[in-house]
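TL;DR need structure tokens for one chain.
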Amino acid sequence: MTSPKAPPIMGFMPELPEVETIRRGLERHLPGRRIRRAEVRAPQLVTHPDWESFVIGLAGRTFGKPRRVGKILFLDLDSGTLLVHLGMTGQLLFQDSAQTAPGNAVGGEQDPHAHILLHHVDGTCLCYRDIRKFGKWRLYTTREALTCPELAGLGPDPLTPDFALEGFASALKRTTRHIKAVLLDQSVVAGMGNIYVDETLHRCGLRPTRRANKLSARDVRRLFEAIPDVLKEALERGGTTFSDYRDAEGNRGQNGPALRVYGRYGQPCLECGQELRRTTVAGRTSSWCAKCQK
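>> reply
TL;DR here they are.
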């Protein structure tokens, strides 16, 4: 009998591979481009400073190289920094012509989901689309960006040298929480989310409800080594698209078919054939294999 298909995945928030893919795309287009004017159609998305000061403050500024920390984008300017958090459905799209940007009128109608547009002097445009409007934009001074609250308490990024085995093992040893809850905690590892935690735990053969402080040294090392490997593989495929995620050029991520367990509960495990189970951990649905993950 054929196993039932898992229901559609809803509420996917871009994780490290998706945000890094966007950053790399923007790095190809933004540096050196000067903002002619900023257009804000949904003022609630701008949380620092007020949206009017945001618009005034961006006029005439020139982009430098974009950065990423965990799931957060930093678009450095010649004076100040734009911080962008994509929320659940945010898209950051670069357009070669402002006339073809999704925020502009096409057939007499504007895209209702295009909420922030940065029009550049050369006629190009950076457009922010967000169906659910959960994203956030902030314009910081250079000094404010160094100590902004979004960075406070953020753990090491697993694709940087800051992610070290000793610190990771110590963080796990100090808590009795389920290992999935720990990996979702941005103060332990910055950038991991539901997708790549499930995928990493399956690769390591660890069920999501294992207590972090009970893992053996061997398990901890396997986990430490698997995290960047899983993220890099997803990054090579441009991230994972279920519905809304797009890279800076509007392309879908190609990592979906490579997922081994995430969202596949009720279907056969691709390793052993046993039906994948579903468990809720830290308020998140987890897919895992009772045979492969101990």
